[in-house]
Amino acid sequence: MNDQVKSGATKLEGDGKRILMIIGSPKRRSLCHALADAWSTGARSKGHIVRELRLNEMAFDPILHHGYEQSQTLEPDLLEAQRQIHWAEHLVIAYPVWWGGMPALLKGFFDRTFLPGFAFKYRNDGRIWDKLLSGRTADVLVTMDTPPWYFRWVYGAPGHRQIKRTILGFSGIKTRSLHTFAPVRMASEEQRLKWLNHAEKLGSQA
């Protein structure tokens, strides 16, 4: 995990917002990593504290083998991730869309960490639940090869609904914005540079 703090010109060190960047790409290097770095640079330039979880560098089993029927011991990296989520006021989640949704690594991270008693808690009647991560906000940075209009109007944006409503929203985290950088496959270097500059500007507005 990377924990860097840079003070802005008009802010005292430690005066910024507590932000946790979660990078969900399994690749060692990707546009997602570059966008996350650019966003973090923008946020740190304004004095915010940005910590990072790079899932491809963490050691954990992404499979919830028994659902909620049996407990599955959390690896040290996942216990630390839960501590960082509790620490954070704001989350930023960066990942590519594969087959209409998030990569298995990121989905497995949510399966293993957003557990009953941590992210939510069912009440006795089983129909109402407490959102245990309420009070936090999130930004989502997504890359994909599909044109955004096609993903929304033809596919129905299934991955966007999943992250905003059935994961973050279910746990009480309010998605402030979701930004799509696409289509990636045919993007020129000039376009990629524009995306990185935009991501840095978004971070500076955190």
From TrEMBL:
A GO MF term: oxidoreductase activity
Keywords recorded for this protein, A-Z: Oxidoreductase
EC number from the UniProt entry: 1.-.-.-, 1.6.99.-
Zinc in keyword set: no
Tree of life domain: Bacteria
UniProt-listed SUPFAM superfamilies: Flavoproteins
InterPro entries: Flavodoxin_fold, Flavoprotein-like_sf, NAD(P)H_dehydrogenase_qn
Domain Flavodoxin-like fold: 17-191
Signal peptide: none
Recorded family membership: Belongs to the NAD(P)H dehydrogenase (quinone) family.
Name under which the protein is recorded: NAD(P)H-dependent oxidoreductase
Species this protein is from: Ectopseudomonas mendocina
